[in-house]
Amino acid sequence: MAATAAFRDPIDLSAEQPAFPPPPLGARPVDRAAWIAAFHHVRDETERRAAPLSPEDQQIQSMADASPTKWHRAHTTWFFEQFLLRQYLPGYTIHDERLHYLFNSYYVAAGPRQPRIMRGLITRPNAEEVAAYRAHVDRAVDALLKEASAAVLDAVLPILEIGLYHEQQHQELLITDILHAFAQNPLGPAYDSDWRFPAATPASGTIDLPGGVTQVGHAGSGFSFDNESPRHDVLILPCAVDRALVTNAQWLAFMADGGYSRPELWLSDGWLAAQAEGWEAPGYWRLDGDGWASMTLAGIRPIDPALPVHHISYYEADAFARWARRDLPTEFEWEVAARDGGLADAFGHVWQWTRSAYTAYPGYRPVEGALGEYNGKFMSNQFVLRGSSVATPEGHARTGYRNFFYPHQRWQFTGLRLANYRG
Amino acid sequence: MAATAAFRDPIDLSAEQPAFPPPPLGARPVDRAAWIAAFHHVRDETERRAAPLSPEDQQIQSMADASPTKWHRAHTTWFFEQFLLRQYLPGYTIHDERLHYLFNSYYVAAGPRQPRIMRGLITRPNAEEVAAYRAHVDRAVDALLKEASAAVLDAVLPILEIGLYHEQQHQELLITDILHAFAQNPLGPAYDSDWRFPAATPASGTIDLPGGVTQVGHAGSGFSFDNESPRHDVLILPCAVDRALVTNAQWLAFMADGGYSRPELWLSDGWLAAQAEGWEAPGYWRLDGDGWASMTLAGIRPIDPALPVHHISYYEADAFARWARRDLPTEFEWEVAARDGGLADAFGHVWQWTRSAYTAYPGYRPVEGALGEYNGKFMSNQFVLRGSSVATPEGHARTGYRNFFYPHQRWQFTGLRLANYRG
Amino acid sequence: MAATAAFRDPIDLSAEQPAFPPPPLGARPVDRAAWIAAFHHVRDETERRAAPLSPEDQQIQSMADASPTKWHRAHTTWFFEQFLLRQYLPGYTIHDERLHYLFNSYYVAAGPRQPRIMRGLITRPNAEEVAAYRAHVDRAVDALLKEASAAVLDAVLPILEIGLYHEQQHQELLITDILHAFAQNPLGPAYDSDWRFPAATPASGTIDLPGGVTQVGHAGSGFSFDNESPRHDVLILPCAVDRALVTNAQWLAFMADGGYSRPELWLSDGWLAAQAEGWEAPGYWRLDGDGWASMTLAGIRPIDPALPVHHISYYEADAFARWARRDLPTEFEWEVAARDGGLADAFGHVWQWTRSAYTAYPGYRPVEGALGEYNGKFMSNQFVLRGSSVATPEGHARTGYRNFFYPHQRWQFTGLRLANYRG
Amino acid sequence: MAATAAFRDPIDLSAEQPAFPPPPLGARPVDRAAWIAAFHHVRDETERRAAPLSPEDQQIQSMADASPTKWHRAHTTWFFEQFLLRQYLPGYTIHDERLHYLFNSYYVAAGPRQPRIMRGLITRPNAEEVAAYRAHVDRAVDALLKEASAAVLDAVLPILEIGLYHEQQHQELLITDILHAFAQNPLGPAYDSDWRFPAATPASGTIDLPGGVTQVGHAGSGFSFDNESPRHDVLILPCAVDRALVTNAQWLAFMADGGYSRPELWLSDGWLAAQAEGWEAPGYWRLDGDGWASMTLAGIRPIDPALPVHHISYYEADAFARWARRDLPTEFEWEVAARDGGLADAFGHVWQWTRSAYTAYPGYRPVEGALGEYNGKFMSNQFVLRGSSVATPEGHARTGYRNFFYPHQRWQFTGLRLANYRG
């Protein structure tokens, strides 16, 4: 059950990052080597994260919301084969036509697919065969990037870029999904026994926004997902946003004050979810002899009061804010406060629930075709999270990034920071 | 199976309205007679709506979202007994202590209650006994309003007022719930065979909002629910809102163009709901010989293309807008357009889905106690609807009124109007 | 909420019974008056049982296994219309063609039908209209029996006879179903506040069967259901069958000895059912202040230790027998012991679970057509009960009668007596 | 995806069988070497069956009724550790105490255990570690059998014997469970591409039993499960039992005659199951281009009309018999016919459904303790199957053997032969 150093230092944003992100799409001349390096950087990170996992570990799907490691490895590969190589690499040989059905995810326009809930039942191809599939596609993408004409490259790079960010999203899911899977094992196995959650940056007080009309959404030449556009005006009301994240210590105070047993603190749907699932603490917490412990990537560990609370659903975040007589910030209050540099630990610790329902920016239209299914079709019943987490790959997040989950979900590294209006 | 004229002309807003709404809370001297008249006006309307229904009709609950007519009649009565008479009428004799458990709804703070799904299983008290309960409480409220001191009246009237608007909400539900119940009966019984959906006002084109910061939410001395406050600034972007509602004719065009069979038009959750429930048309529609018909309050009737489409879920409204390459308006775009008088049939036909998730206004805090459970705890997973419907009692709605339902629900009289940005 | 004397003395088998059962089918000359009297005797008993129930009481269906009183009244009427009048009464006018769909039960061959689970949603026709339906059919059956030619009568009487026994079965269900419905009402209403469970006949010891080959199943000229044939040889092993039924006192001893918390006493499926439904005592029992009470037809009453235990599932009966280191008798051991007159309270108290799975007698073949669906298609997953209960109409049961229910069901008046082998 | 010769010739009963079954328990002197050989024979067969399966294949659980290969390998090992080594081998070191929770199955008396439905989520220990567990226990059992005193051996051998037969049962399940798992993979992988279902023995006509009292159940000195006792008298009625099994050709005739669409042929519960699961053919059958094919251990193969039909539920077997105007035999009719040598292919092809519900033999009492949970607690809602299947290990079955499954289950190699009474 040994583990490598796979996922030890995932958030060192200060380190030199030559390979990722790739150059802006519009940069000329096109730096083919930089794109190839970015491609390999991302592809290698996936394998680095999968490395500590046995074939058995990589096989299983522990709930409908999660996917097997092997599936993540294959599906991200299928993405490049389906959207890039089929169309743009002359003479490309499909690795195995039968894999198409197995490793499509939710792209209805890309044809029928294995039901999500049954992803864990595909034992063949096995982990080794998926490695061969990855190698086959990697070689072909290399060839494409090296040999494509300038005109083809213009069509290829936007798809390649989205493919890289797409694979990074699956890198994060790979980690959160395996944590969920291991949490079902009474033995509490460790993904990496040396793994540690990063310490919080000392911070206190609030950053006070004066209010007014400002612009939010994607700007500039870098990458963004379609749900960050169009850039548009929003009105910020005068408000205060906490510099620090809510900690385990604060959460324990909420619990001690009956936080999980007082329905008046909860949204109605939240109370139903909490009762149905028997929530008495954040996800993966368990009473262990003297006190609270938690299933982590390093196995079962005592709760550290100084760390930001995580594995929190929106319902819990909302109840906590009500208990504290504060609010969650809106996604735009968060964005403006982060842009101004006032937030500690905005990135690399926990995704932060906002009180903004996930919805389209004014005038948003999905792109045509299968890639149009990427973000727009999920714009109901979910809430926006901002920032990034300990599991987010380096270079993936940005101030305008919009993550989204259902309000009952808590297997991600999700936490919160508080805010309030100054009316 | 005869029906009375019970629910024949519910939307004549131009008629003289002496009894409802009651005077503003702050008006002095307090006009006790006007309050008593308003109280009886509302109480009588409930009975008028129940009158065509047999004891059997009043008994049943056809789904978890609906309630029996008898329960609506008793629960609205319990509201006055629980929040008004218990506390403020000296010497008041509780009609029957055992009814408390049966007719509380979701007020957790008011104690345990009959599970919602089992409301249809309470045959005793019967309809006649509920009538006696209503009469008992009506007499006591009369006495309270006549005899209370001025100081007591100051405490009483705000509760009375919310009780009246609360009962009006149940009047609307009484109608929509019995329609759902009758729709389960293969014989398609009529609530009132003379009932007709009101004709649409001729209208075309859009009202164009120039954009800018404006105030929304409750203002003035009239009644509003807590979710309409605090009044606050919002930013309207330049947009166009259709004057007319979407009609059945337009909906039939959507259906003819594969609206219910093209997943690319649908939200992901919406597509799942549509498949799971087998949606191929709006709620209650059925193919009937030559064409489409619908279960209505007058029984099964052919679809009239000129009427506004109704019994539409948010998911369907959203798919229709995507198909039409338009948007739903936000709740504030709707409010500003309605305030400016530009919308036809804003009230009295169908509730209109907006693209705004139902959430708290900035700085909103629920009131303390059981009445604080009225609106705030439902602020997740639902969408705001604006306007009012054919089933809404006279005098109930207003421009700032925020109705809300889950995006899959369609047993209400729900429809839509379209909008788009002019970026 | 008053009740009449409706169901006060249902088991006085010693009373003169001129009207029921009707004459044997083969008796010549045919005594038309006796058949008419039997018909009215049965039809009147149904109405006598329904009389204490309000229109609301008659409307509801409290679980999938139960049906509304109104449905029982209408379905038994439909049976005569469908199988007798349609075919054999010239010029018969169907009361209302639309009722056919509503009141068919499970006769697949008789056409589509209202889903069982939705029987409680049919408010129209109402109770009064069902009374009119009954009267219409009663008049027509009268006319048929008076005026039919001898040849027609030969075809009619076997169907009439099965219709009468069929209606008696629904009379029993009417009582057990309304008890279940009332048990869902927290107020615990009484069907008849003067109702009492009949006292047990003093009895002790066993009747010892010597063993050997004997014949079981239907013999003679009286009525029997098809599942009691063919008469055939069975081998009885030497065994002892208790003369007395198991009492509440004995059941309390089982409970005190951990009967509901020791999995080793239970069948695997039984333990799952007991855990899933939270069984800690027989059906309808509840702890009430000082001790155990039970919901009964007279409302909530203290447990009487001397009465036979009832509302027991097969799983509980089996666990009790295992705890007592005894067996349940097979259905044939019961039948032979009852035939020999050795059993106390074999009839009129509780149906008695046997350890015999409900299966076909050797060589059994269902009759052709819809009436062939009566018994044969239920021959899996159920157990045979013998005897009859306090709710069984007079004249309905006999020594060879085979009742059957699923092993988890306990809303019937079901109990047990013990036995064991003497190997 | 290569396969070894693992499961190529499983039914050659004529081959020399030196190792299994072991000597009768009462044989003296005790032949320790023979017992050790039998032990290794059984243990090796499990590994031989698992050999073609990758770590991924061994990991998954494709439905609640099935278990992972790895679990079968570990659970059978746990059985020897729990019931043999813990108690009887002085100084035995438990391999890993934590495995106890993971690999107990349903033995409530042996303590808490991993929920059945979550067996597929245990990735650690992995397949290799389970091999080490098996080796550890094998060595210890070797030592015990070699070194135990005669007195200890007397206690040990009955437990060892049941452990061997227990492991053989899991050998059969290992095969049927992996077939089910592979059938969920759209690629239809082969367990062993050279595997073939054994050809049927030519046979026709019936064996006619004259009827009379005879003895059934276990006799003699060989092994039997407790559910085969006590031996007792039964009465056989004159009947005819087919010599041959029902074939695919006959089943295709049933299908062509509407067998799956005529409710009158089906038990009520069976029809519900068939509709709910969409049965139109035996388990694993699919329309494949020109005709019917089936998922088999060799992958997807065309249906061979000459083979006995298999993957049939009891409900289907019963419907087929009704369609053929025949019966299924009772388990005792089957046993007597088999004893008399009249049946072709009684063993080694398909388990044969009988019309006997699975219940206790007269006077049966489970043994005390955890091993008492082996058979008795399943005696409800299941039917007896007789014979053995292509997946049954050599030497496992016998004429009196009682297998049992729920009537809806069809992932086993289950088929039927017909019979009828000669009244």
UniProtKB/TrEMBL annotation, chains A, B, C, D:
Could you tell me which residue ranges the Sulfatase-modifying factor enzyme-like domain spans? 204-341, 342-419
Keywords in alphabetical order, please: Iron, Oxidoreductase
The uppermost taxa in this organism's lineage are: Bacteria, Pseudomonadati, Pseudomonadota, Alphaproteobacteria, Hyphomicrobiales
| Family annotation (Pfam families) | DinB_2, FGE-sulfatase
Pathway the protein takes part in: Amino-acid biosynthesis; ergothioneine biosynthesis
The gene coding this protein: egtB_2
Q: State the residue spans of region: Disordered.
A: 1-24
The record's InterPro entries line, in alphabetical order, gives: CTDL_fold, DinB-like, EgtB, Sulfatase_Mod_Factor_Kinase, SUMF_dom, SUMF_sf
| Span of domain DinB-like | 38-172
- Indicate what this protein is called per its UniProt record: Hercynine oxygenase
**Species name:** Methylobacterium iners
